[in-house]
Structures are given as structure tokens and as C-alpha cells.
């Protein structure tokens, strides 16, 4: 209110503005004459102290460590107060956050089949709709990537693969494991849904027998193809046998 009156007092005067704001003019004049509060004076001193401590510690301390450093220096200050003063000073600590990982890398100009699922993830029977995606798990030796394949009817994970990379091979191994876990050489009518990540799109182009028209293989984000008669989906290795891949579902020594 005081700053508003200061801004407009030259045009309207103090008394008319106070009358419109329903405030006494004496309140305005008392605020103008009042000395800085004890808190404001103490904050000004602590700001200098905290800034010096922050610079001394290579400008990496956050609120918690700076609060501990202030206590070691003999200053009685609260943890929340340190955080407030740091915000007012515009300083902050250095966070050792992990680099953000993107598991979906799509090419908008690349051609891919249409999306036939249309966000309808219901299935009337087992092996009618599989949903797959890739996630990541931080480990001490690096990032481990996991490809899951889930049956939409039973919500059961029918295939998975862990690797230290996000190449197409892990998708193919997970699909081979899913086919073997269902003990079926050919799954007629199976629909597999995924995003438009490059791993899944490349798996389609590597699949044999795409032009045989056996069953539909659907991918979210616009991927549809037809699998080989000996495969559950189109995402299978061209020269692999009908048996499961020996490494399917196993964790490599690096990622474990």
C-alpha cells in the first residue's frame, strides 16, 4: 500500500488515495518514518554471511549444507531461513542429478504403418493384444534398459529383455521370449502395440515374410505390418530358428 501511494501521490495526493483505500493517512506517514525492522536488519547481515560461505565452498552448497556451514561458523540461523535468503540472493547449490534419458527416438519423416489400436487396450482373449515398451533402471555400472511385453488380457508380462543398450536386438529377443513363454509357434490374430520408437520400427523392417498377409501386427504411433507364419509378430530375426533365443530374458554381465 505504501509503494502504491508513493507511485500515485503526485497525481492524486495522499489523503484522497488513503480515503479510497479506506486507510488512515497517519498509517502511511508512520510507515514512511518507521526504521527497518529487526528482522530486516538481521536478514541483511545474514545475507552477507551466507554469500561469503557459499563462495568459500566453491558455490556448490545448497540450503541444507549452507545451513550446516553457518552453524559451524557460529551463526544461529534456521534451515528454512537459509533457503529464503538464498532465494532472495538468487543463489543455489549444484545438484548431482542424473542425465535425463529418452527411450523413444522417432523420426517424423520415416514411413511407418498406421496405428490400428486407437488407444483401445482391451482384449477378449489371451494372446489377442500385446503391449510393449522400453524403460530404464539406473545401476552402479551405468544405465540398464528393459523391454517389457505385456498381455493386455491377463496383464501378465510374457516377455522381457535387459541390456546395456536400446538396440533392436533387445526387442527381438523379448518378442522371442514372449512367443516361447506362450508355447506357440504361430499366434494367429495377435496384435502387438508399441510407440514409434526406432527400435520397434526397425524390427518391423527386419522381419521376414512381411508380404504374406498372415496376421496384423499393430504399433501405436503408426506401425502396422504382417508377421511370418512361424513367428508370433513381425518383430523377429530373419535367420533365427523357431526355438527361443538363448539370451532372451537374461541380464548381461554389464547391466547386472
Short key terms for the protein model shown above:
single chain, 256 residues, alpha+beta, Nucleotidyltransferase, domain 5, four-stranded mixed sheet, two-stranded antiparallel sheet, 8 helices, 15% strand, elongated, disordered C terminus
Give an account of the 3D structure.
With 256 residues, the protein is of the alpha+beta class. It folds into three domains: 1-34, no CATH class; 40-96; 98-256, Nucleotidyltransferase, domain 5 (2-Layer Sandwich). The protein is built from eight helices and six strands. The chain has helices at residues 2-12, 14-21, 25-33, 38-56, 63-72, 79-89, 168-181, 198-205; strands spanning 129-139, 142-151, 156-163, 191-193, 217-219, 223-225. A hairpin with a 2-residue loop joins β1 and β2 (142-151). It is elongated and about 90 Å long. The protein starts with a helix and ends in a 31-residue tail after the last strand. Residues 207-256 have low confidence and may be disordered.
What CATH calls the topology of the largest domain is Nucleotidyltransferase, domain 5
What's the architecture of the largest domain, going by CATH?
Answer: 2-Layer Sandwich
Straight-line N-to-C gap: 63 Å
**Helix content, binned percent:** 25-40%
Provide a count of the helices.
Answer: 8
Proportion of strand residues:
5-15%
Main β-sheet, spatial strand arrangement: 3-2-1-4
What is the number of strand segments? 6
Largest sheet: 4 strands, mixed
CATH class of the largest domain: Alpha Beta
Rg estimate, integer Å: 32 Å
Q: What is the averaged pLDDT score?
A: 75
Estimate nothing, just give the exact number of structural domains.
3
H/E element string?
Answer: HHHHHHEEEHEHEE
General shape: elongated
State the secondary-structure class: alpha+beta
Low-confidence stretches: 207-256
